[in-house]
Design goal:
This protein is of the alpha+beta class. The protein has 2 helices and 8 strands; from the N terminus they run H-E-E-E-E-E-E-E-E-H. A hairpin with a 5-residue loop joins strand 4 and strand 5.
Length: about 220
């Protein structure tokens, strides 16, 4: 009997835990986002009152690994803030229903962007969550930004390559003009000296013929 009652007791405990676990809903997600230098980025999460919100962040790249953070309620009350921290963790019990705001401020940095990883965990017993479309929005923004940056870089690269091509073309055109001028001058010189040599050879040949003929010819008259 004791074994039977012990079994029933454990079964009841498991049943209670199962009900409690199923009655509590949990929303958990994390993102990694780039906060450009001199800019401020904010994200929002709609929540109901009497929920538990855990928010953690960490700067994983950029500058001295620090950033300003602020959490605000739907009525714009400051719930948590960090000044130039590399990481932070905040847990609050929501008292209001609405959009809670999480802002990362990198306006104090004029040179370095910051790569921030943050995680949001929300526990609720009676609230059905709609995961915010941050991922799609951020992905779309990042894709647009990446495409614009890629286009800008591509255009700059094309412009640079065109300038380099124009410079190379000018160099090759100048070399071609110089080589053509040299070839034409050499061609003129070759033709001139060829004509001179040919003329000298012809004249020499004529003189030799005349001299040889003069040696074998008897110009004196024979007297009888």
């Amino acid at each position: 009997m004791n074994v039977f009652y012990s079994f029933l007791k454990h079964l009841f405990q498991i049943f209670v835990i199962f009900i409690v676990v199923n009655g509590v809903q949990c929303l958990e997600y994390d993102f990694t986002y780039i906060i450009p230098a001199g800019q401020r980025e904010c994200f929002h999460q709609p929540l109901k009152a009497e929920n538990t919100l855990d928010f953690e962040f960490q700067v994983i790249e950029g500058g001295t690994l620090d950033i300003n953070f602020m959490m605000r309620s739907p009525t714009n009350k400051v719930l948590a803030s960090d000044i130039r921290k590399s990481e932070g963790s905040h847990a609050i019990d929501t008292q209001e229903t609405g959009d809670y705001l999480f802002c990362f401020d990198n306006t104090f940095s004029r040179m370095s962007h910051k790569v921030v990883y943050f995680e949001v965990i929300v526990d609720s017993e009676d609230y059905e969550f709609d995961r915010p479309n941050w991922e799609d929005e951020l992905l779309a923004d990042q894709l647009v930004e990446m495409k614009l940056e890629d286009m800008h870089e591509s255009l700059n690269a094309v412009k640079k390559h065109l300038k380099e091509s124009q410079g190379h073309q000018r160099v090759w055109r100048n070399l071609e003009f110089r080589d053509r001028y040299i070839v034409e001058r050499n061609f003129e010189r070759i033709n001139f000296w060829s004509i001179v040599n040919t003329s000298v050879m012809v004249i020499t040949a004529l003189v030799q013929v005349f001299m040889i003929r003069s040696l074998f010819s008897d110009s004196q008259k024979v007297r009888t």
